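Retro notes, structure queue

What went well: the backlog is down to a handful. What didn't: a couple of records were mislabeled last round, so from now on we paste the full input next to the output in the thread. Example, using Glyoxylase, beta-lactamase superfamily II from Nocardioides scoriae:
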Amino acid sequence: MPERPPADPTSQQSTGRGAWAEPGVVTIAPGVHRMPLPLPMDGLRAVNVYVLETADGLTLVDGGWAIPASRELFDAGLRSLGHTARDVRRFLVTHMHRDHYTQARVIASEFGGRVSLGVGDRPNLERVLTESDGAVEDAHLLRLRGAGAEHLHAGWVEQVPSRPPDRGQYALPDDWLVGDLVLDLGDRRLHALATPGHTQGHYVFADPEASLLFAGDHVLSTITPSIGFEPAHVQQPLRDFLSSLAKVRALPDLTLLPAHGPVTGSSHQRVDELLAFHEARLDASLAAVHGGARTAWEVAQVLRWTRRERHLDELGVFDQALATFETQAHLELLALRGRVAREAGETVVFGPLREAAVLPG
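Corresponding output:
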């Protein structure tokens, strides 16, 4: 493979917060390159695809969103490294969201590469492939109704098409990843770790020898990942996410290679920040319940969002829905921990424990 000098993985942060998303290929370490690819209608701007050169060809972590602009930059990026899409032997996809999975599935189908995905995402893919548009919309409506945010549904439908542009982009992977395992890439070994939370099938890939962590959306360098935003319902996504963070924290301190945002120097530091954020969010959600908020929507209105500390009403409909779902996850964990009472119904209602006689768990 061609030799290229390693880049300073943290130097890109000094050129501006959004510089990480600019098109091009950045060398992170010998044989490891970061290739940001564009996202349509998405505040995240880009997704980082990581190219690993091995003696057997290319292994990529994630593949991008299957849109023409992304494919054009994908092909150009590989050409700059002296490769083409035919050289890709395997995609290790961190999770099934379309900005990670769909282009990997399309390219692998064209050229015979293999796609690997965590088995926890199988119910999500199967729902996308088999459910009717009406069933998908009914699921969205029920989830919003359960959070006390049914009024968002019309705006949600307008902004989020119920059906992917091409369901062929969601064909099942060639290999399901099950449990924690070590992947032998010839001259590189990756530790594949199941990290449910963002989705139930999420995986991260650690290269301890090179001190690299390909973190997907599990650990992002500048924002907090959404929790449990997936077609198949999960009762306790935040519990799973926090447990997965603890698993990653138990690894050596590695250079953090996120799916969105710049590369940073300490996985431990960022994991600690995320753990602290969610504990503070749990406390704030509990305080909101004691202040009279009863549904996830009502609690989300009390909380503040984004680094600018915005009110929920200042966000767009899609972000309001994500914020409400995340708040629901915090409230469900508080109920599991025995800190709030929970009454299940068409809309899930939470209350202080002293109201347990009125709001049975």
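Agreed that this is the format going forward. Reviewer comment attached to the example: The CA atoms of residues 304 and 310 lie 5 Å apart.
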